[in-house]
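Good day; I would like, with your permission, to put a structural problem before you. A protein sequence and the structure tokens that stand for its backbone fold form the material at issue. The record follows directly beneath this note:
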Amino acid sequence: PSYQKGSFVATKDYARLMRRLPDLLAPGGHALLCLNAPELGVDFLQSQMQELAPELQFVERVANPAVFADVDEGRALKVLVYQAPELAA
């Protein structure tokens, strides 16, 4: 959840996770970022990643299945794929 009292607050805790992603991922590894907060758009995730983990490359936004359809795409479930760089040869 985007907010779980005493456990996770997306606007604060996602930044901590994003900063650690480059060290947590193997070379070429993928990170799947998911956010179900309607008040935070896809731009929240993308701008945070550009600032906090710029070495990770945006791959794609995963399309939501019909069961997660929303009248406002910006408020729907957001699932983004990022990839760590491969090791230099």
